[in-house]
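Late entry, evening session. Most of the bench is empty. Finally got around to the prediction I had been postponing all week. Sequence below, unchanged from the version circulated by S.P.
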Amino acid sequence: MDKKINRVVLIGTGAVGCSYAYSLVNQGVVEELVLIDVNEAKAEGEAMDLNHGIPFAPAPTKVWSGTYADCDRADLVVITAGLAQKPGETRLDLVVKNTNIFKQIIKNVMDNGFKGIFLVATNPVDILSYVTWKESGLPKEQVIGSGTTLDSARLRFMLGDYFKVDPRNVHAVIVGEHGDTELPVWSHATIGVEHLDEFMERRGDVNKDCLQKIFEDVRDAAYHIIERKGATYYGIGMSLVRITKAILNNENSVLPVSVYLDGEYGHHDVYVGVPAIINRKGVREIVEINLNEKEKEQFAHSVNVLKETMGPIL
């Protein structure tokens, strides 16, 4: 029997989409990668450029500029299309403009027989993941937003940098909106196998003011990057590849992604960033960690802000 061919369709060949595509090829994650963009010439050029690097990739990948008809055999459709965040603009400021763009994209995908998994990266990612779920009619398990995967990676990196520890051995998570109301779950953060509090106490770091500063730098990282270079794209591109690998390799990995809550954490009818087990079917289950009282209040505030923002558009 022929081996199953993994096909990813990427919609949007801007900086985020191309960073994702470049990382996919460099890591040899998929056999087929289809690029779609409203600017067809741009998508063609990006496909040509990526193909010229295939001789140096760890595994062969067939890359081409396609159409929505290519979605019929796709395992995963990744959406990075939409208007980007400008200096001084919040992710939630983009909601109306990008919602209208998304409704047309989802219709085009579904009209071509797509039955796979959506992975959404465009901001505001939590609200646009909800829009994708509603417009597609797919089960909630098959629509995932990048959520707080990047925020959590930023937190791990900055903690590792501060404590001089490999960030791959730092286990900490950001939950809530991918935006200004997100929060760190300090109550479950560990360095290696030690709880963060115990690690700091053993080192003699009794002043925890550094943690608030680290979190603020994580929360505001996008603003600082946008001020300096106009956009963020490498970090989110690699975050999307991590989620893609968890899906296509059926890893059952725990990742902080934007998923639909239906009673988990005491909330309903909202997409928001929380840890979830991800595999070939999408979201296998939501990991409902025990938040302390302060974290519960902050999380509820984050959910309420998302609901208030998306109310007028749905």
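Two things to note before I forget:
Residues 293-310 form the longest helix (18 residues).
The two ends are 46 Å apart (CA to CA).
Will write this up properly tomorrow.
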